[in-house]
Amino acid sequence: MNYVQLSENDEIWKKFSEHITFRARSADERKAENFIKVPFKDALGLVKDRQVFLHKGTAFVHIKNLNTIARSQFRAKLMSEMVKAYKFLPTILKDARLSQLLINLSNHNAIDFNLAEVSAPKDSDKIRLSDLDYYARLSFPPCMKVLFTALKNQHHLKHFGRLQLGLFLKGLGLTVDEAMQFWKSEFLKKIDGDKFEKNYSYNIRHMFG
Predict the structure, then answer these.
(1) What is the structure's pLDDT at 48?
(2) Can you give the residue ranges of every domain in the chain?
(3) Which residues have C-beta within 8 Å of that of residue 66, sequence separation ≥ 6?
(4) Residue pLDDT, tens place only, 172-203
(5) Cα–Cα distance measured from residue 169 to residue 130, given in angstroms and rounded to the nearest whole number
């Protein structure tokens, strides 16, 4: 990154200082040296949230917001390197230490490393319960894929997560019995059957009227 710090003598500062500092609260925050010239594509998150002043492809970012850019760049770099690493996954999985590390990571939040290949469903007019893993990876919209993967990893979803995913699965054509089987197969990995019936089964049936 080759970012340039502003100074009081910059023509752009003399002309647009009031616009550049529009988010600054105190006099100290409104000093020129507190702002960095950043290519706007590196600050898209800040641009989207209208946190910075833009001029001719340059975003004028306060130093306190550089952590947002750093996180975004780290995430992009990490994703790029993970795509490269995925090509060598069969080799990586031969190392027991690395394979266990990836499996442990995949048990958190909504990370899906696709460590196990899923079989394509056979020709059918109906999406079957056994086909959900396949369709979740290849066809679910991102929001539903996140919920589905989080459920698979954590064996639990909060109420509104269950509601959103449950109604989506209903829309796919699952019956109430299939839905009950689906949720029970995940939740029973963390709780007993009595607790599931008492706390969750009614809401699942309620989704189907």
Answers:
(1) 86
(2) 4-69, 88-117, 129-207
(3) 36
(4) 999 999 999 999 999 999 999 999 999 999 99
(5) 13
For residues 68 and 57, what is the distance between their CA atoms, to the nearest angstrom?
A: 18
- Residue 33, classified by CB atoms within 10 Å of its CB into exposed (0-12), middle (13-18) or buried (19+), is exposed
Structure tokens at 79: 């994703």
Average pLDDT, the chain: 84
What's the pLDDT score for residue 166?
93
DSSP assignment of 81-95 equals HHHHHHTTHHHHTTS
Contact 35, 63 (CB under 8 A): yes
CA angle centred on 74, ends 71 and 75, rounded to 5°: 85
Burial class, 13, CB count within 10 angstroms (exposed 0-12 / middle 13-18 / buried 19+): middle
Task: Count Cα atoms within 13 angstroms, Cβ side, for 90.
Answer: 2
Whole-structure pTM value: 0.48
pLDDT at position 139 is: 82
Q: Is the pLDDT of residue 14 over 60?
A: yes
Q: Pull the structure tokens for residue 154.
A: 């954590």
- At position 209, the amino acid (one-letter code) is G
d(CA 72, CA 52): 16
Q: Which residues contact 69 (CB under 8 A, 6 or more apart)?
A: 38, 42, 43, 45, 46, 61
35 three-class SS = strand
* Number of Cβ within a 10 Å radius of residue 114: 10
